[in-house]
Design brief:
Rossmann fold, 10 strands, 4-stranded antiparallel sheet, 2 domains, single chain, 11 helices, 6-stranded mixed sheet, 39% helix
Amino acid sequence: MLLEIRDLNVSYGAVAALRGVSMDVSQGTVVSILGSNGAGKSTLLNTILKSIDARIGGTIRFAGEDVSGWTTERLIAAGIALVPEGRQLFPDLTVIENLRLGAYLRRDTANIARDLEQVFEMFPRLREREQQSAATMSGGEQQMVAIGRAMMSRPRLLLLDEPSLGLSPVLVTEILRLVKQINAMGVTVLLVEQNARQALKISTHAYVLEKGRVALSDTAEALSRNAGVTDAYLGSKERENVQC
């Protein structure tokens, strides 16, 4: 098991954001986290990478090691990367400068150059615009930069927080196709996604969070046929079209 979370509790002062959350993410899979706004999905991803100012309890194990007390930098160096909600690029830096920041902990210069080339192969549009400032790019292009930047750290586990947020349906399909491509390259993916129908299509397993707790856990195929899940997150029309 690549990622194991046991009895995770996260609180912001007196407000409990996660309550007794336990889940497993197997090596080589895409696992989706579904739930309404405020369910704790983003908090979960930020807690895994310790990019959060909150009181945390419970255990997180990565690649067999207890990483509960590790710093963000140590977790990134170990192979965990986060594409945060809203992308959080450096708007005044160019595409290539943002991408290179993803490798800031690495010292293997030759491999960094090869990985940069791989990112450009994955996102040809970024090669065309490598000297363009991030602030002048479209939302879809910025998301490509954010994912490319995360890939520059050579992650074993990629945490994706709402990659389709604010994008057109065509771009949503493209971004999630690329998520599947990244997974095929051997990267395990933990995906938070409001577009439940698309997320279930590319996932192996899924968890549903409600008010900071795991309400359901099953294969993506089973959850796509669960009446409660489809009524809450897919709707009747989308339910008919889901194919996992």
